[in-house]
Amino acid sequence: MVKNFEDIQKLGKDNMDVTMTSLSALSKGFQTIAVEMADYSKKVFEDGHAATEKLFGVKSIDKAFEVQSEYIKSAYEGFVAQSAKLGELYAGLAQEAYKPVEGLMAKATTAK
User: 43, 44, 65: which is closest to 54 by C-alpha?
Assistant: First the structure.
């Protein structure tokens, strides 16, 4: 009976350790994503502000269309690049958060 209690206690401790490790990975991952999004938002705002200032300084409609087209193209390319980067960050986050659980599952599978 004491042996079973010790086994259950060890299992509970192992589960708690895995949970804490996984939550730590999630916290770090979400923090990285939040910083990345804040940096991207700041860059988008600055680029938009610069494009607006440039647009106010043009003398012809043709130049205004050129400035606007350049801004739209760069904004789209930046969005696509940022989307790819965020996809990689989320994939890495999922992998890091699952690693501790994967180890526990492997241990549980081999124990049977």
Answer: 65
